[in-house]
Backbone:
């Protein structure tokens, strides 16, 4: 193996190692390496719930905006008749 092939091999091994570290969450800590446990993040779950709630509200607003005006008028009349 010539010096050029050795340099290419070292660069390839380094690139593969960095990809594996990034994928599996391995980080360096001083003398050794440790695997990061990636569990459900409470902030992420809260944001997912908030996005779901906002999507539900937008769906209701879209239904109101696209609904015929006669249907809305009937609903208003029902509310007025209850008094």
Residues:
């Amino acid at each position: 193996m010539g010096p050029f092939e050795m340099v290419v091999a070292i660069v390839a091994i380094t690139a593969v190692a960095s990809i594996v570290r990034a994928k599996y969450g391995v980080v360096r800590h001083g003398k050794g390496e440790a695997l990061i446990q990636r569990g459900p993040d409470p902030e992420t779950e809260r944001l997912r719930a908030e996005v779901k709630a906002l999507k539900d509200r937008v769906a209701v607003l879209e239904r109101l905006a696209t609904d015929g005006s006669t249907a809305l008028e009937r609903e208003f009349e029902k509310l007025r008749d209850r008094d």
